[in-house]
Amino acid sequence: MEKAYEKVYEVTYGETDGRKDCRITSMMNFFSDCCLSQEEKKSMNYADNSSETTWVFFDYEIIVNRYPRYREKVKVKTYVESIRKFYSNRVLEAYDMDGALVARAYVLAFLINKKTRRPARISDEEYEIHGLSKESSKLLRKKLNFEKFDKEDLEMKFHIRYLDIDLNMHVSNIKYVEWILETVPVDIVLNYKMKKIKIKFEKEITYGHNVIIKSKIIKSEDEVKVLHKVENEEGESITLAETYWY
Prior knowledge:
By secondary structure, the chain is α+β, with helices and mostly antiparallel strands. The protein folds into 2 domains: 5-129, Hotdog Thioesterase (Thiol Ester Dehydrase, Chain A); 154-245, Roll (Thiol Ester Dehydrase, Chain A). Helices cover 17% and strands 38% of the residues. The protein has 4 helices and 10 strands. The chain has a 10-stranded antiparallel beta sheet with strand order 1-3-4-5-2-7-10-9-8-6, covered by helices on one side. It is globular, with a radius of gyration of 18 Å. It starts with a strand and ends with a strand. Residues 150-245 form the Acyl-ACP thioesterase-like C-terminal domain.
């Protein structure tokens, strides 16, 4: 089978920001849909919820060369580059219609049983449909590391709404990014562009609960790095992130 899967998307009105640039969360929606489309084509069935397993993103790193503009079309390409036990390394790439790379993402995902929420061993078929050899496959990328901080500069609280829940009945990964970006001061958002984001999803959060986002700003001469931590009501860390602005 073909290892890579491609799909074309158009940046519509609701997917742009005040600059008429594609939002990073819109780009993530394109990436997620492309992944799901590939999995549905090859193995999993999300439409009728018949599949017993699902892929969960654990580490997610996105590097942006430029943001597509309103009404611009982008071609998203995805493939799994390695599989090991419960884990897979997935690559996502977005290209403009001239073939120039717009953004690239690296994902460490793991397969879980949807009922037990426990890791599920990847079948031999999964290796085959992604064009990989079980004997020679190993994870090519290590888990992401994050800088720790004790005192935050900003803090915000969010309540989990039903609209934050995705088809797997948990909070969409993209919602975490929306919350995180809300803590970034508007002067940074207006005067810089985010060129990279790193995220580690540690624990799930469910409908009806609250989350607290804590962020610390580190400025240098020509860039801003913001450290983020998402905590649940018990003060446990459930997501870590770093955003880089230039």
